Amino acid sequence: MSATGARHISRWTGAWTWALGLLGLVAWQQAYAQLLAIAHWLTTSALRLKAGTRLASAVEFFLYEAPKVLMLLVLVVFGVGVLRTFFTPERTRQILAGKRESTGNVLAAALGIVTPFCSCSAVPLFIGFLKSGVPLGVTFSFLIAAPMVNEVALVLLYGLFGVQVAMIYVSSGLTVAVCAGWVIGRLKMERHVESWVYEVEVGDAPEEHPSWADRLTAGRRAVPEIVGKVWMYVIAGIAVGAGIHGYVPTGLMARYLGAHEWWSVPVAVLIGVPMYSNAAGIVPIVQALLGKGAALGSALAFMMSVIALSLPEIVILRRVLRPRLIGVFVGVVAVGVTAVGYLFNAILPATGGR
Fold it and tell me: What's the whole-number mean pLDDT along residues 287-306?
C-alpha cells in the first residue's frame, strides 16, 4: 500500500473513532439522566418496598448512587488518563527542579493532582525529586497534594454534591499542600532526611512524545486499571452510606459533627488520621454524614485527614525520613486540615448535597 493510501486509511480511522466517541458520550448522558427514575422504579415497583420507609430510603440511595458514581468515574478517569501522558514522573521532576520555593510550592501542588502517585511510589519519587535539586518543602507540597487532591475524590464529590463542594475540596486541598510545604521548607529539616537518599543515583528516563492515538489508548487503559481497583471500595462506601442515610438519626451526626461544637473538627481529624481508606470508600460515607446534619467543614476535615495521612504512606516514607520530620509532616498537615474544617464550618455550616 502506498504512503498516500495509508494516510487516507489513518484519517478515516481517526474520524470514525471520534464519531463513535461522541455517540458514546451522548448515550452516556442520556443514561445518566435517567438514573434517579430507574432507582425509584426498582425500589418501589420491582422490589415493592414502601416509599418513605427507612429500608426503601437506604435501598433507593444505593441503587441511585452506585451506578452514578461508577459512570462518572469511567468518564473522568479516561480524561485524566489522557492528561497524565503530558506529565510523566520524569517530566514532573524536570519542571520542578531549580524552581524557587514559593513558586515551586504552588507548581508542585498543582502538578500533584495530575501526575501518577500512590503510597507505593512515594520513596522513588521523593528520592528523584531531591536528587534533581527540588527543595524539600516543594517536594512535600507535591507529596501532600498528590494523594489528597485526586481525580477519584473530585469526581465523587462532584457527582454527590455538585460543583461548589468539589471546588471547595480542590482549593482547600491545594492550599493545605502549598502552606504545609512552605512551612516545612522554612524549618530547614533537610538533615532529618536519611543520609542514604542523597547517595542514590537517579538516572534520567528517555523523553517520550506520544501521539494522540497513544494518549487515547492510555486513557482507555486507565479505566480498567483505576476503576478496576476502586469499584469495590465505591460499592462498599455507598453501602455504608446507604445504611447511614436510612437508619442513623439525623440529630446524631449534627450533634457530634455539627458546626456549633468547637471540638467537632479536631475530633474528626483525630478519627481520620489513623484510619486507612481511599477516596472511593470514604466520600460516599461523607455524603451520608452530611445528609444527616454533619457540618461540611467537619466532614471535609475527616475525609482529607483519611486520604492525606494514611498509615501505609507514613510507614513507607519512614524509609527515607527520620521520625522528627515525619512528625512535623503529620502535624503540619493535620493543623492545615483542621483550619480548613473550621473555615468551611463558618462559611457553609451544613449541606445535604444537591
Answer: 79
Side-chain half-sphere exposure of 90, counting CA atoms within 13 A: 9
Q: Give the separation between CA 8 and CA 85, rounded to whole angstroms.
A: 26
In contact, 221 and 81? CB cutoff 8 Å:
yes
What's the DSSP call for residue 121? Answer: G
Q: What is the pTM of this model?
A: 0.61
- Reading the block at residue 79, the C-alpha cell is 480524561
Residues 6+ apart with CB under 8 A from 333: 144, 176, 180, 305, 308, 309
Residues 196-219 have a mean pLDDT of: 66
Q: Which amino acid would we find at residue 160?
A: L
**What per-residue confidence (pLDDT) applies to 352?**
45
Say which amino acid occupies 139.
T
Query: How far, in whole angstroms, is CA 278 from its chain's centroid?
Result: 8
With a CB cutoff of 8 Å and minimum separation 6, the contacts of 14 are 213
Residue 141 neighbours by CB under 8 Å, 6+ apart? 104, 105, 106, 108, 109, 112, 177, 178, 180, 181, 182
C-alpha cell at 265: 473538627
Question: What is the pLDDT averaged over residues 118-132?
Answer: 63
pLDDT one-digit tens code per residue, 38-95: 988 999 888 888 887 888 888 888 888 788 878 877 877 777 677 667 766 566 666 7
Pair 264, 295: CB distance under 8 Å: yes
354 — pLDDT class (breaks 50, 70, 90) = very low
Domain ranges of the chain: 99-202+230-347
Beta bridge partners of 193: 321
H-type alpha helices, the chain:
3-33, 35-41, 54-83, 89-96, 101-114, 122-131, 136-148, 151-161, 163-186, 212-222, 228-247, 250-257, 264-272, 279-291, 296-308, 311-317, 323-347
